Amino acid sequence: MQSVFVVSDLHMFCRRSDWEEHVALIHEAAEEADLFVFNGDTVDFKWSVLPSLEATIDSAIDFLRDFCTRHPQCKVHVNLGNHDHIQDFIARLETLNEEIENFTWHPYFLRVGKALFLHGDVANWKMSHQQLEQYRGRWERRHRVQSDFKNRVYDAAFQAGAHIAVSRMAFTPKRTVKRVAAYMDDIGHGIDSGVERVYFGHTHVPVHGYAYGGMTFHNGGAPMRGIQFRLIKAHI
Ligand SMILES: [Mn+2]
Asked: Could you give the CA distance from residue 54 to residue 98 in angstroms, rounded to a whole number?
């Protein structure tokens, strides 16, 4: 397997995300790829502009089915993040996995050769895998579609750029990669297991090959205004 691409935090169906502007590029990459990884928060169930949870799930599954079908030579893998780890979606991902030859998914990570792909919400604080499961469970209970009022409050804060400043302060590269590395040890995919490159997202703070503990860490940011966003060519 030679050509691998990874994209994180598309936040599909959230109106603060410009994900649609990048769909053409993503298809272009998948056209020549052997593996394409959606690295979590691909779908934003909390902030979906679609009328219901069911409608959001349907649209997400349609997108993934179409993506896999258009690139049959490419293995398509979905890792979940805090925004898309919900049981109703998981049930449909399972069905899609049975239906489509080149589709796989995992709630937490994908290990391929010397590369590890994971969403990165373990960087919120120092978390074991068990703590990550609890954290995801708390998120799952929050996935009611948010009110229009609340959405407008967030839009205003977003326009002010508050999210960027807050993320940069909270997620300095050093602090972030240290927490991710500790979690990797906990799941048995740390440096001792032969991992050399780590691809993550979640923080919306781009990281371009930050070296830590004998590994390099890569984060492509998010497709939101004022934030850098990159589709990453991964080395496995
Ligand atoms: Mn996230």
From this structure: 20
